[in-house]
Amino acid sequence: MKISKRDALAWFQFFSSLPEEEELMSGQQEIALSVFAQIETAVSARHEQMLGEIPGLKSLAGRTYYVGDDALFPQGCKSCLLGTGLSAVRKTNRCNAACRFCYDYGALNSQPPVGEGMWEIGGTKFYEADIDLLLSIQKKPTGISYVYLEPFMEIEKYYGVIRKFHEAGIHQHMYTNGINATRENLKALADAGLNELRFNLGATNCADAVIRNMEIAAEYFPAVGIETPMTPEFFDAFQLKKDRILSSGIRFMNCAELHLNDNNIDNYAGENLYMCRQGYISPIFSRNIALTLMKQAAQERWPILVHDCSNRTKFARDLNLKAKEGGWFGASTYGCEFAKLPYAYFLPVLQDDSFSFLEEEPMPAGFGLGDIVL
After folding, report:
1. Rounded CA gap, 250 and 225, in Å?
2. Are 142 and 275 in the same domain?
3. How does DSSP classify residue 279?
4. pLDDT digit string (tens) for 76-85?
5. For the chain, does the N or the C end have fewer beta carbons within 10 angstroms?
6. pTM for this entry
7. Is residue 15 part of a domain?
């Protein structure tokens, strides 16, 4: 059904008022999914329009979009989207920032430790000495990434592990907010064999000190770039310092579409949200900003590659990962991160007079506001 925006608002107001433990009946679920589909259809139409306005838009095997020199496309992303997946290596459970877009916002001090002297790889705990055994038994991935939470909180522990994977010929990249980076530890990381360093520049609102650390990193690493969720705050800060950032020696910028979970959704209460493929829930502004920056990059001929790391890209990533793992046709880990859908958070977009559904139809018999829908 193509529910009207007026009826959608009324039904979501009702769903929002239900006790938390009360589940929707199947007919009510059909209504709810119709509302989500109507919102997503309108958002997708806007995205398609924006994509059509980007000069020189490119696609990586139909799995993601970008603009810029093909040679600058980050190898870590190719591993993720085309290779045998991207194995996450987890070590540090602490951070020195508290970003409102963080998936662990409000829970940063209660993240479980990996364990003294241990590393989490593929959900399994390893000592550094176990890595040789791992590499001798299992097929090595095309790439690995160091995540969770801020590696530079104890970066000296990473050098030995990085060296082992480097000797095995595995591409490695790391995420950092850049706050604790120094010339000394950046050089040590590069000497150990890290291939790619990605700065979450939005974590510090494009702080001058972090931009300077990006410049230093570019002296040592084959590839340095930005990967950060797209927010209005980042967009404004980036525009103010654009010239310096673009001349810092970075090769790429991954414009991540911000998706929400129970930890960070309250920070975006009141924003217009949509749900992508009944999975990730995101502020509508996030991918709009990414596509705006891609258009700007193409028109101004920026010297870097700008990548649309959207919910669509993450959907393709998970399909690729499952396929490489031998999963069944259609298998994917992509899905919604909420145990119960947060209907109240979608009231703002349904109350926004500037947001319209593309097509509306009368409700089918038995699904009206005055009906008892089971």
Report:
1. 5
2. yes
3. S
4. 999 999 998 6
5. C
6. 0.97
7. yes
CA-based nearest residue to 269, from 281, 279, 287, 254? 281
| Residue 349 within a domain | no
Contact 336, 278 (CB under 8 A): yes
Inter-axis angle of helices 284-300 and 26-52, nearest 10: 10
Residue 191 lies in a domain: yes
Burial class (CB in 10 A: 0-12, 13-18, 19+), 167: exposed
Nearest partner of 185 among 227, 148, 149, 220, judged by Cα: 220
Beta carbons of 127 and 119 less than 8 angstroms apart: yes
Q: How confident is the model at residue 371 (pLDDT cuts 50, 70, 90)?
A: confident
Q: What is the C-alpha R_g of the chain? A: 22
Q: Please identify which residue in the block is written with the tokens 């001349």.
A: 247
Q: How is residue 308 written in tokens?
A: 């649309």
Residue 289 located in a structural domain: yes
Note the pLDDT tens digit of each residue in 210-232. 999 999 999 999 999 999 999 99
Q: Are strands 124-127 and 143-147 parallel, antiparallel or unpaired?
A: unpaired
Tally of structural domains, the chain:
2
Shared-domain flag, residues 42 and 138: no
Q: What is the pLDDT of residues 146-157, one digit of tens each?
A: 999 999 999 999
Pair (44, 96) in one structural domain: no
Domain co-membership, 193 together with 291: yes
What CATH number is attached to the domain comprising 169? 3.20.20.70
**Residue appearing with tokens 């217009």:** 272
* pLDDT tens for each residue of 328-342: 999 999 999 999 999
